[in-house]
Amino acid sequence: MSPSRHLACITAGLLAALLGSARLAADDGTINVACVGDSITQITGYPKKLQELLGDAYVVGNFGVSGATAIANSASKSAKPYIKQAKFKEALAAKPHIVVFMLGTNDTRKPGTYTYIEDFPKDYQEIIKPFIDLEGKPKLFLALPVPIFGQGNFGLNKEGLEEGVLPRVRALATDLKIPLIDTYTPLKDKDAMFKDRIHPNKDGAAIIAETVAAAIKAAVAAK
User: Fold this and answer.
1) What's the CATH fold of domain 29-222?
2) Which pLDDT value is given to residue 27?
3) How far is the C-alpha of 154 from the C-alpha of 177, rounded, in Å?
4) Are 98 and 33 a contacting pair, CB within 8 Å?
């Protein structure tokens, strides 16, 4: 099967699954939220703040992995594919009712992972699909990565994010009919909150959490 046909088959399957009903709470009414991502998720504190904003009816799990990429091409020495990390399996095992994906920052690395940017949508789908296949049919959200200011650190860069990653995340959300959470725009002029030009401080993390919380509350209210 050609790569394009393989991608089309995956997309068709995902769309069918997304049209099914989602169960947005456990038997006791608790709503489990899985935050999937890289260091922006793991170390900035946004999932912790999200827990505070959502309250006791929710249990927010932090399944971020520093350095993780959506791109899974093993030929890239700089890649640390999220799909191959233990947190990926842990997130699935948590049986979440809501999943927030935020990957892409580390896929901007030049030279390295960005060489395979054309694989980004296909590989990101491979991360998303197992969550769609969960029995509970969780509600999914795709969050745009936060800004990178200039060259950032570790070879990560603004150009790769804005020209390569962001358009592909937006297109993927459209293709799969997954709601998009724009955590990029509220922070795009907040360079003072990014001391290393990549990771937001606690104030930036709070903005991420507030944006994600608003999207989750709206989805639950509409259910």
Assistant:
1) Rossmann fold (3.40.50)
2) 66
3) 33
4) yes
Q: Which two tokens stand for residue 73?
A: 């091409």
pLDDT digits (tens, 9 = 90+) for 83-131: 999 999 999 999 999 999 999 999 999 989 999 999 999 999 999 999 9
What are the extents of the domains in the chain?
A: 29-222
Percentage with pLDDT > 70 across the chain: 88
pLDDT at 25: 65
Distance CA 182, CA 142 (A): 9
Residue 166, number of CB atoms within 10 A of its CB: 18
Contacts for 185 with CB less than 8 Å, ≥ 6 apart: 144
Structural Rg of the chain based on CA atoms: 16
d(CA 3, CA 30): 40
CA 82 to chain centre: 10
The answer on pLDDT for 189 being more than 80 is: yes
CB atoms within 10 A of CB 46: 33
Nearest residue to 74 (alpha-carbon basis) of 31, 116, 27, 29 = 116
| Higher pLDDT, residue 219 or 28 | 219
* Rounded alpha-carbon distances, angstroms, from residue 59 to 11, 15, 30, 99, 135: 30, 27, 7, 12, 19
Distance CA 149, CA 191 (A): 7
